[in-house]
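Q: I'm building a small set of examples for a reading group on sequence design. Run inverse folding on the following structure and report the sequence directly after it, with nothing in between.
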């Protein structure tokens, strides 16, 4: 992206989010960098001012056009840096926060950045947060080089970082069908609006990697299957009508298509089991999740899924429909079908890498998926060095899903340290 560009279109994934935005819910997620020293707010504020010009595709506000939303260069100063809050990932109002679509918080040794999903996905957020943390450490007097997830803020943004990779890599003639069948949802005592229970399990990365490898699967397959199995067991114990149970697994497309974009470039898979077909063991669920992901995770299928999403956006009717009707339609569809076809979400960002000299100052990183409207506990996971963190965002007071998940890990010989904002 050129530094002087004043506006650009939302990418294909981003276009659905403004229509879903309400006074009670927004699609927000959080990436946190935890240092080994207390944060100085004034230094962090200056670091943000230094870093923001390197990310012109985040230095924007959202505007309404006649047919589509679009991003426009934000003339306001960088957003404020605030003490952390007890209700992370609460809704976004486009008129607040100097009209920026990301928020920066600090608490003791933590730097947390929350992103409205229309801007980017977990990969883009991790690069921004790590670059921000690196500049903060430089201003504290440490020699921190660039590399890996830390960008050189003295250089302009690359054109490839701002591209809409969905548009670039579509082009399949295949037809993809998606199931919208209603599935099981765990329920409980709902928290007040904008409040969320957050529970993080901190695990030695080598231990969970060894366990997954011993079972012939990846870490993503392992934790997604365990989350699916926990929901299956919960429904089974409730002695109710048995519905299908599913887990939604977002996957970055950057490696498959060689993309460098720092905007959205992920698709989500749905893996289901049907309890009406019989009883399942965890090993059976794990095998089904693993086989399905390896079957579907290939360039041809991903290109077809991308093309299907773009065809809807590029249809003659959608292009001519005024924006207020698009918003109304997206809002109604999200109310009727949003999260109806998924019991849980499991987003594993993978391993975040930073320059070696910076590693002595960073203890861990966390990824928090925003709370859902129906999903009881949404799971975000990320690895750094030998630390793997799994964070649950729960809209219910009950913690039985998280407890069952982490207890299962402990029974498998995987040590877990728990942190939570629960009272």
């Amino acid at each position: 992206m050129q530094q002087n560009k004043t506006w650009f279109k939302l990418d294909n994934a981003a276009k659905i989010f403004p229509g879903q935005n309400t006074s009670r819910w927004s699609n927000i997620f959080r990436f946190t960098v935890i240092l080994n020293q207390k944060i100085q707010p004034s230094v962090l504020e200056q670091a943000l001012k230094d870093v923001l010009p390197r990310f012109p595709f985040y230095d924007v506000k959202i505007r309404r056009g006649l047919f589509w939303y679009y991003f426009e260069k934000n003339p306001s100063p960088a957003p404020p840096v605030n003490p952390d809050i007890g209700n992370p990932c609460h809704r976004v109002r486009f008129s607040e926060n100097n009209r920026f679509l990301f928020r920066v918080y600090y608490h003791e040794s933590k730097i947390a950045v929350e992103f409205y999903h229309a801007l980017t996905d977990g990969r883009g957020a991790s690069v921004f947060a790590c670059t921000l943390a690196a500049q903060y450490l430089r201003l504290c007097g440490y020699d921190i080089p660039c590399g890996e997830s830390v960008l050189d803020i003295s250089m302009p943004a690359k054109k490839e970082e701002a591209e809409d990779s969905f548009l670039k890599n579509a082009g399949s003639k295949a037809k993809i069908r998606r199931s919208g069948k209603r599935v099981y949802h765990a329920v409980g005592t709902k928290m007040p609006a904008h409040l969320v229970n957050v529970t993080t399990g901190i695990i030695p990365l080598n231990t969970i990697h060894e366990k997954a490898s011993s079972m012939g699967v990846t870490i993503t397959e392992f934790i997604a299957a365990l989350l699916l199995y926990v929901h299956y067991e919960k429904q089974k114990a409730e002695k109710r009508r048995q519905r299908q149970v599913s887990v939604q697994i977002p996957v970055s497309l950057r490696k498959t298509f060689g993309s460098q974009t720092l905007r959205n470039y992920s698709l989500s898979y749905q893996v289901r089991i049907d309890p009406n077909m019989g009883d399942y063991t965890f090993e059976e669920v794990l095998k089904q999740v693993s086989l399905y992901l390896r079957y579907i995770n290939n360039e041809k299928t991903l290109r077809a899924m991308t093309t299907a999403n773009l065809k809807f956006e590029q249809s003659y009717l959608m292009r001519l429909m005024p924006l207020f009707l698009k918003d109304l339609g997206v809002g109604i569809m999200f109310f009727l079908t949003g999260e109806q076809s998924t019991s849980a979400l499991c987003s594993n960002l993978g391993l975040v890498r930073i320059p070696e000299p910076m590693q002595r100052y960073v203890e861990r990183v966390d990824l928090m998926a925003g709370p859902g409207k129906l999903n009881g506990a949404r799971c975000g996971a990320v690895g750094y060095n030998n630390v793997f963190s799994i964070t649950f965002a729960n809209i219910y007071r009950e913690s039985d899903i998280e407890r069952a998940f982490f207890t299962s890990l402990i029974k498998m010989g995987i040590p877990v340290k728990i942190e939570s904002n629960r009272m």
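Residues 219-237 form the longest helix (19 residues).
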